[in-house]
Design goal:
Chain lengths: 279, 330
């Protein structure tokens, strides 16, 4: 075999391997989604949304988990959006270039990728141990701590994208800096800020580890945030590792619901971001 | 549309002065400025305080265990809640082994995917494929765990583990390496799941790195008659070498702290794993399994101390990743 043929052959194999790697990743995605649908879709009926988690062997649904998840994620997002947007604004508009700003940005990145279970431990030490009880609030704070860094990061990126001429135009009309930020820059970056919130929401709605010892889980329906609260992920965790077939079936349904919700929110977030970039 | 001019719409200068004077100047209120700026600063500081809080609370909570067991906490592998003896070497080693194995699986795949998307893929389908790969990052950890436990593990046990164990002499090196309970819940399958989970992050960052390479550099190499493989190996990869190490560190940081998926599938045994197919535990899976049920102070403290070890590990790895990636982008 001469040299040219060998080089060509090596190259073909290389391209083939790269394509194969891509196929493996796509295959994994398809396999996972497929088994979710196969195992979960049969269990979806009206009971899932109207009944609470059952004792083994009796009919039931996931209502308490769904409601608990929605409440804690909603509360967590509320905190995360307020803190994240303000902090991101500070980084982009005020002190981002100071040494303190660099420190905040770096530590925000660390918090962004810190293991979520450690955030759970922190909130346990902060809110559960001193008040002698697991609570929905503790769960919400843990989730907020996971979403806030994402919102902060996206907010900073989106505000930095806004042209300086916008700020100068506002100030030339006599507006103060904060007023310019609130009524011009935030509005111009609105879709971007929404993306950040959606990505944060997608991240926390599937989180299990930080809820295990903050909201704990609750087998009964509970809409009181000061009490231990069920959530979809912790219910799935409990049911999937149980020995009862009907509990495992419910766990698959829950997993399907969560995956669909998270992927949908993620896709919407991406879509919003793309529309912004285009305009 | 042009409106007809009407006399009463015209304001004389006095009216204008009045209007300006009467309307509160919302846009220029110095007090509001200070408050808003203060709020923004406060929010930024809150994030800083949260991270500091994580470190401090882990250090305080774990202190009794560090004081009791000293350096032995990190080197002993005896973990016994009954006799109140806690040595964390088992979970620490388990964490490092699974993360490095996962990295071994994920890195070639991530390189292959990003190279394929940047260099070879037809432009029209490259975006949908990139989105599909990134969707993998959106699937919650617990879903990976369930899939691993109910789909991957049984398949792995019957189609991979059993044949290998049947085909090797249990006393040979290979037999010992692949020894384990054939239920598919072991450090190898845990690493496989971890690899799928960190793959999209690594592929996304690496693809960005490849896109930062100036087109002239690539085209010059092609112009000399190189094949795609040679361009990649001799020009593009060396160009992003520093960043590649950053990508590896980023994947490692993700893998170290992953909790739920690993908890489902690693088998949750204390102590060192003795083979590739042996069950084990990681720091995160140990905390997830035991924390809510820990009754004694020392047990809780040992788990929190484990958390601190995990934090320091991930912090070191992520800080390195960040420094390397920042260096590449400049």
């Amino acid at each position: 075999m001469n040299r040219a043929t060998r080089r060509k052959a090596t190259n073909t194999i290389f391209v083939g391997l790269c394509a194969f790697a891509t196929l493996i990743a796509l295959g994994a995605l398809v396999l996972i989604l497929w088994s979710l649908v196969v195992n979960g879709i049969g269990g979806i009926d009206a009971h899932i949304f109207t009944m609470d988690q059952p004792a083994p062997g009796s009919p039931g649904g996931l209502r308490n988990g769904i409601v608990g998840s929605l409440m804690m994620c909603g509360m967590g997002m509320l905190i995360a959006v307020v803190v994240g947007i303000l902090a991101g604004t500070w980084l982009a508009e005020y002190g981002g270039q100071t040494p303190y700003g660099h420190a905040v940005r770096f530590l925000n990145d660390v918090l962004l990728s810190a293991p979520s279970i450690l955030v759970g431990l922190f909130v346990y030490e902060l809110l559960v141990k001193p008040f002698h009880g697991f609570s929905g609030y503790a769960g919400a704070v843990a989730l907020a701590l996971l979403a806030a860094p994402i919102v902060t990061r996206t907010t900073e990126d989106m505000l930095t994208l806004q042209p300086n001429t916008l700020r100068e135009a506002g100030m030339a009309l006599g507006a103060g800096r904060g007023f310019v930020i609130r009524s011009i820059i935030w509005k111009a970056a609105g879709a971007g800020l929404l993306t950040g919130a959606l990505l944060g929401f997608a991240r926390i709605s599937g989180e299990t580890a930080p809820l295990l010892f903050t909201s704990l889980g609750n087998q009964f329906f509970n809409a009181n945030l000061t009490q231990p609260m069920a959530s979809l992920p912790t219910t799935i965790f409990q049911f999937a590792l149980s020995a009862y077939d009907d509990w495992r079936r419910l766990a698959w349904v829950g997993a399907l619901l969560i995956a669909v919700a998270v992927l949908a929110v993620n896709t919407i977030g991406r879509f919003v971001a793309r529309e912004t970039h285009r305009s | 549309m042009v409106l007809p001019f009407r006399r009463e719409w015209a304001m004389d200068s006095a009216t204008i002065d009045n209007a300006v004077a009467i309307r509160p100047v919302r846009s220029q209120n110095p007090a509001a400025e200070t408050i808003f700026r203060g709020l923004c600063f406060f929010a930024a500081t809150l994030l800083l305080a949260a991270l500091a809080g994580v470190v401090v609370s882990l250090a305080i909570g774990g202190w009794p265990a560090f004081r009791q067991f000293g350096f032995g906490f990190l080197t002993s592998s005896e973990w016994n809640p009954v006799t109140e003896v806690y040595g964390a070497a088992g979970p620490i080693v388990g964490t490092i082994i699974t993360s490095i194995l996962a990295l071994g699986f994920a890195l070639p795949l991530a390189l292959g995917i990003s190279i394929f998307l940047v260099e070879f893929c037809p432009h029209r389908i490259s975006r949908p494929i990139a989105i599909a790969v990134e969707l993998l990052a959106g699937i919650p950890s617990i879903v990976y765990g369930m899939w691993g436990l109910f789909v991957l593990a049984p398949w792995f046990a019957t189609h991979i583990q059993m044949p290998i164990m049947m085909g090797t002499d249990p006393n040979s090196f290979w037999g010992k390496l692949f020894y384990g309970i054939p239920n598919g819940a072991n450090i190898f399958t845990a690493s496989l799941i971890l690899a799928i989970m960190i793959l999209p992050y690594m592929a996304a960052v690496f693809r960005e790195l490849l896109l930062t390479i100036p087109a002239q550099v690539r085209e010059a190499a092609y112009g000399l008659g190189s094949t795609s493989f040679e361009v990649m190996r001799q020009v593009m990869l060396p160009y992003v070498r520093r960043g590649t190490v950053g990508v590896i560190m980023l994947g490692l940081g993700r893998a170290l702290g992953e909790t739920m998926a690993v908890t489902f599938i690693i088998g949750n045994a204390h102590g060192f794993p003795h083979s590739l197919f042996d069950s084990g535990s990681t720091i995160a899976s140990t905390i997830a399994n035991e924390f809510a049920e820990a009754t004694s102070e020392m047990h809780t403290s040992a788990l929190v101390a484990l958390g601190l070890v995990l934090f320091l590990l991930t912090f070191a790895v992520l800080a390195t990743a960040r420094a390397l990636l920042a260096g590449q982008k400049n």
